Amino acid sequence: MSTSSSPMVSVILLTYNHEKFVRQALDSIESQRVNFETELIISEDCSTDATRSVIDTFLKEYKGKVTLLYSDVNLHSAFVGTRALDAASGKYVAYLDGDDYWASDYKLQRQVEFMELHPDCALSHHDVARVDPSGAVLRLMPGVQRTATIDDLIEGNFIQSCSSMIRRSAVERLPDWLVGLPVLDWPLYMLAAEHGTIGWIEGVLAHYRIHDGSVWATTTLARQWAGSIALLEVLEAHFGEGRRSAFAASRANLVRQLQDALAHDEGRGVGEMVARERELAAVERAETAVAASRSAAAEAEQRALMALGREAAALALVVQKEHHTLQLQYQFSQQEQRYVEREQQLQRQHADWVRRSDDERMVWRGETDRLVALLSENSHLLRRERRTGRRLLGIGVALLAVLSVAVMWLAFVS
Fold this sequence. Notes:
Order of helices and strands: EHEHEHEEHEEHEHHEHHHHH
CATH architecture of the largest domain: Alpha-Beta Complex
Shape: elongated
CATH class of the largest domain: Alpha Beta
Strand content: 5-15%
Number of domains: 3
Helix content: 55-70%
Number of strands: 9
CATH superfamily of the largest domain: Spore Coat Polysaccharide Biosynthesis Protein SpsA, Chain A
């Protein structure tokens, strides 16, 4: 990676207690093949393990532009991400958590090319694979495979942090209320989506890792649901004007997402979690029922949620993981991605060949025009010399005639 005072992309790495994984994340950043300038901003939130040591070792050999932001105490808030965004000087910003990594060396190149071709796009995302600590694929997490809007985003956050790229001008000024939130991604995407569309790029270009240290992934589903409801109310207070139906749909989606998560949960022990959290989930359902009663749609969601407790045990018995099928889907996606990258490489080579051919044709045309000009000039000189020769010949003939008359006259006189 090269350095510049005006990079095209600011890569922001957010990390806390990621000593086992952060080196892979950093290596995936360094391996990006791009034709523009980048900068790396690392925001580390006072880890209690060797995360900082791993970062320092990596930076000893890293040649790119780097900004380090270290917390003196663990902040565990959106400020860890917003301070990095404030330090970013790139046209675009790409986030990556320290326990995730980019699976394609062309991830940044492809997203920048897409964003440059779509100036109305405020942010973009791509498909992601969910993996275990060793990197084995658990399941695919496809994005919204079309141009989306803020209303789509309100109904549910479909953008994984490791897949996001945001146009910096779309989040130029961050509101004060954002800094104190426990999470950054969903609110930040909404702020950006107020200024443009949301684009999708085909292909699995990043891996989202699930492990014992994952704060969100290891949080019980009941607490995830309660936290999402609380966050949704904050977001509705700031984005809800004219979008009440989208927020109502979002609350309905939370019920369906919880049900789906119970059926596809990896590694948390669904049956055990349901038994352990039943009492807490009942309390949370009762508390959220007050807010849900505000509309007929919310009442329907309440009834679905009450039924969810009865269905949870049955769902836990029928959970089946189709790892082989998903692995084949992932391998196919990766192979297809390699074909796409190869095709883009060939297209760039063809463009270079066409450009060189155009340059050579321009040189050839210049030489041809110069030779034509020389031939034209020579032809003009030749015609002028011929006219001069004819004049001289005429004068010579006239002089010869005069001389002949003079000689004849002298002969006659004598």
